Amino acid sequence: MKKWLLAVLVCTLAVTGCSKYKQVSDLPETDETTETESMSGETTEETLEVQQETEPAEPQKERVRVKGVYISGYMAGSEGFQAILDKIDQTEINAVVIDVKNDDGRITFSMDDAPTVNEIGASERYIRDIGALMADLKARGIYTIARVVAFRDPYLAEKKPEWSLKNADGSLHRDNKGLAWVNPYRQEVWDYLVEVGTQAAKVGFDEIQFDYIRFATDSTMKQVAFDEADTKGRSKTDIITEFITYAYDKLSAEGIFVSADVFGTIIGSKIDADAVGQVYNDMARHLDYICPMIYPSHYGDGNFGIEHPDTQPYDTIHAALMKSKQDLAIVTAAGEDHAIVRPWLQDFTASYLQHYIKYGPAEVRAQIQAVYDAGYDEWILWSASNKYTWDGLLSPEEASQEDQKIAESRAALPPETTAAPPTEAAKPETAPTPEETLPQEGQPSEETSMEETEAPVDETSASEELQTSEDPETEATDQAASAQPETTAQGEKRSKPNVVIVTTGGAGE
Questions:
Q1: How far apart, in Å, are the Cα atoms of 81 and each of 98, 118, 233, 470?
Q2: What is the pLDDT of residue 386?
Q3: What angle is formed at CA 86 by the lines to CA 83 and CA 88, rounded to 5 degrees?
């Protein structure tokens, strides 16, 4: 009888012991060593099982094939934004890039848990109720991208001069527009940008997009004195890539995508890359998305063999993206992954150019078609005034049919081929000639009236800037790269055509 009772007791203990770890809530709250640890202090398989159950899951990120538009912080916080959202609902647009830290260095909504933002009073609060705004965007199924201007930050530079670029005499450096820039070599600046990005992620943004992740390029830069204690022998391109890597590691851990705007002319050009600090394929190794600003008006006469690039939007976009594909092939050949390419496209008329055309539905659609024909799938439209050519966009149903046709056409291509032959039909047939679109004397176009030009760099500089402010009241920036010989891989000297870079803001610099 005793033996029978003993057997029952042993079985009962065995059963209860085996069921102990089915639920974490059944575990006793104690710091003492439990019976699942061996006498030697090693953890048993049962303890490992419990630890795996209690470890938090990695943040999940869902990719979206972005077709987007830029929205200033001012517009996002205004009643006029509702009209834009209603238009978005009727078209293929599924994403918005909203200023979170704008070109003036101001934060566009209140950030309660951002110590440096609040210390310097950076919040301007164009967007009064960020929670309500994000809820509305999510309800509409819109992917949200937070634009964060990085190193061109006159507000932070004035508030924290020790973090800013300095002249040899110790004074605060200002560009030829009188704006101070922060020092890309300073760790404190990096942490400030990550702080802003983290807060944007907390309110619900799906992606952080850095703009102005570069050095200024105007002639005043030769007055800047870089401290070896900051640079530590690192070049401009070294530090920009290092910042991108640092920011990506920090923000990606928050379950958010990270992207960056870059000049289109850095693709395949060491001169331009060294001038601004952006190496296209290096940066693409450390981002989820890379967004080249390849507006046709960026490029001067003769680029890609095109007489006047702004007058041939399809050809210019297609050529620029084929160059992107060639540059990124270096990364894939090394067996590495690179960022998805998502170019900025032009939805404004560059009437400040000598040779230009008026941009309308045909020109917008031609650029989009060029993206697809080059083998890419995503794009964002830039208009500093947030006035978009809605007639150039498809309805959601039409876009779905187009996507299916694109997939079928690519499936029919030979293996390893992702770019389709240029589509003749995509080129605007009725686009006016430059002469037909020239404004009457004394009547500048809307884009021109919002322009502020900047003095060009000296003749020895790699690039010249014609830069405009990118705040809610002004239009995009132009930058011109001077014609200088550039050495090819074979050591030959070739003349580099003038390049006009229109920087934007979500897309621009």
A1: 11, 27, 47, 18
A2: 98
A3: 110
Q: What is the pLDDT of residues 407-463, one digit of tens each?
A: 999 998 887 666 766 765 555 544 433 333 323 223 333 333 222 322 222 222 333
Joined together, the tokens standing for residue 111 give 């950030």
Strand 493-495 versus strand 485-487 pairing type: antiparallel
Show the CA angle centred on residue 364, arms to residues 471 and 71, nearest 5°: 25
Instruction: With a cut of 70, say whether residue 338 has pLDDT above it.
Output: yes
End-to-end CA distance of the chain: 90
How far, rounded to the nearest angstrom, does the alpha carbon of residue 405 sit from its chain's CA centroid? 28
**What is the chain's length?**
509
Burial of 55 (0-12, 13-18, 19+ CB in 10 A): exposed
Q: Nearest-CA neighbor of 331 among 373, 282, 385? A: 282
* DSSP category for residue 357: -
CB 380 within 8 A of CB 68: yes
**Residue 118 exposed, middle or buried by CB count within 10 Å (0-12, 13-18, 19+):** middle
| Beta-strand pair 344-346/340-341 | unpaired
pLDDT band at residue 352, thresholds of 50, 70 and 90? Answer: very high
- The answer to pTM > 0.85 is no
pLDDT at 202 over 90: yes
Give 43's strand partners.
Answer: 37
Task: State the CB neighbour count (10 A cutoff) for residue 360.
Answer: 17
User: What mean pLDDT comes out for the span 46-63?
Assistant: 55
pLDDT category of residue 198 using cuts at 50, 70 and 90: very high
* Residue 407 DSSP symbol: H
- Is the distance from CB of 484 to CB of 466 less than 8 angstroms? no
Q: Collapse the DSSP code of 342 into the 3-class scheme (helix H, G, I; strand E, B; otherwise coil) and give the result.
A: coil
- Sorted by sequence, the CB contacts under 8 Å of residue 332 that are 6+ apart come out as 338
Token readout for 155 is 């507000």
Task: Name the residue among 455, 478, 481 with its Cα closest to residue 467.
Answer: 478
pLDDT above 90 (res 349): yes
How many alpha carbons lie under 13 Å from residue 423 in its C-beta half-sphere?
22
Among 309, 295, 332, residue whose Cα is nearest residue 418? 332
- Please name the amino acid found at residue 233: G
362 and 429 Cβ atoms separated by less than 8 Å: yes
Superfamily for domain range 67-437:
Glycosidases (3.20.20.80)
φ/ψ of 357, rounded to 5, equals: -130, 160
Cβ within 8 Å of residue 202, ≥6 positions away: 113
The CA distance from 261 to 251, in Å, is 17
Half-sphere exposure of 298 (CA within 13 A, CB side): 29
Closest C-alpha among 102, 232, 230 to residue 164:
230
